[in-house]
Every structure is written in structure tokens, then in C-alpha cells.
Amino acid sequence: MAKNPLYKLYEWYISRNLSIDNMPKHIAVIMDGNRRFSKMQGNINVVRGHEIGVDTLEKVLDWSIDLGIEIVTAYAFSTENFNRSMEEVEGLMALFIKNFKRIVSHEKIHRNEVKVKVVGKIELLPEDVRQAIEEAEESTAHYNKRLFNIAIGYDGRLEIVDAIKKIAKLLKEEKITEKDINEALVSQNLYTAGLDDPNLIIRTSGEERLSGFLLWQSSYSELYFCDSLWPELRHVDFLRAIRSYQERDRRFGN
Predict the structure, then answer these.
(1) Which residues bind Mg(2+) (predicted)?
(2) Is the alpha carbon torsion for 203, 205, 207, 213 positive or negative?
């Protein structure tokens, strides 16, 4: 479908006024609204809504690359999502397998040297999903230019609990002392160890909460809430989020 000329003009205007020197290095997205989108369409099942959501995620990755954003982290599947209907969970697992296998030979991923990494309780996933993830990660492991993180089987509270358990084990084994325990040590034991905290977190569908996403890492993240459902997210919506980020005075508690 051709874009409205006024829309194209507005899109150009926002792009033109963004500062390349003030781009977020790391953006994270909470992809909310796939199921509501499915219901609104009336003629597609919920898994089809998630499939369209994958298309939107690919667009966001493309838009991020165009703007020079180095890291994108997407909240794809929480531990609580296992409580959804068997049909939806099985459909999502099949979708994960299909798209991780696509990454192995995905032209844009390899041309742009995007390293793909999954964060979360991977052990909770079916073996065939874990195998597809491993193949995707191995095929991009040698890239260092850009990073695409996908949070699957993820829960921010559980991530912090697991980090505490790792630190407790180190303490018990006398590999560290109590004086060694600080914020940096906690960060080093999170699923996202070694990764810069997100500068900007975008959530779609009008909901204004993090829902357990990157709870430790988001202390100084800028939050942007968009009314569009995830499958309906437009380029101009993404540009508005970046513009909002650049207009804010980030003081980091000072």
C-alpha cells in the first residue's frame, strides 16, 4: 500500500531533525499487542498475529541499523507466557524454530554483521527450539558490529534471583568475599552479562509498565509508550520514540 504523501513528508521531517550524535546505543522493545491485533482482525488466529509481529520486529531491526543503533533487545516470550493456551504456546515454539533457522542464512543479518543472542531460561524451552537457537547463535557468533538480543523464557525477577544464587555459590566456594559484592558483580551474573544497559525502552499497545522486563538494567532507561499495537507499528512511530529520547534531559540521578 502506497504511503500518504503527507505521511511521507512527516516521516522525512522527523528523520531530518534527529541527531546522529545523540542516538541511543541500545534500545529494547516490549512487543505488546499481537493477540489483540488478531482479535481485531477477526479472521486470523492468535498465532498469525505473532507471525505478523515477527515482520514488525524485522522492520524495527532494519530501522535501527539505518540509524546506527548498535543493540536491539526484544521481549519475545516471558516465563508467564507458558501459562497461555497449549495451541498458542506450541504455535509460538514452532514460530521460534522457523525464524531461528531463517537467521542461519538470513541475508540482512549477515550483511549487517548482526550477532544474535537469546537471553532467558533457555533450559525451559523444548529441545528442538534450543537446537534452533544454538544454530542461529553459532552462525552469527563471529560478528561484533551489532547485537540483536531476544528474551525468551525471560523474567526480570527470576533473572535477579538467579544472579543472587550464582553470587551465593561463589561466596560459599570462597571465590569471592562479602566485600566483593556490589552492583557490578550483580550485573556480571545476569543473563545480559557484558551488555550495556538499554538507553531507551519502547512498549507498544498503550500499556505503561515493564512487565518484568530488564528490571535491573532499566534503572536509568528512558521509557516510551506507544498506542499502536505491535503488528501496526509504523516507521513514524519508531522515529517519534527516538525523537522523544533525544528531547529528554538525561541526568542519571544528578
Answers:
(1) 32, 222
(2) negative
**DSSP strand E in 105-197: where?**
114-119, 146-154
Task: Note whether 86 and 159 are same-domain residues.
Answer: no
SS3 content of the chain, % helix, strand, coil (to 5): 50, 15, 35
Structural domain contains residue 7: no
For the record, the C-alpha cell of 249 comes out as 534531559
Catalytic residues: 32, 81
Q: pLDDT, tens digit, for every residue of 233-242?
A: 999 999 999 9
What is the pLDDT of the chain when averaged over all its residues? 95
Per residue in 49-105, pLDDT tens?
A: 999 999 999 999 999 999 999 999 999 999 999 999 999 999 999 999 999 999 999
Question: Which is nearest to 120 in space by CA: 57, 53, 73, 183?
Answer: 73
Pair 40, 146 in one domain? yes
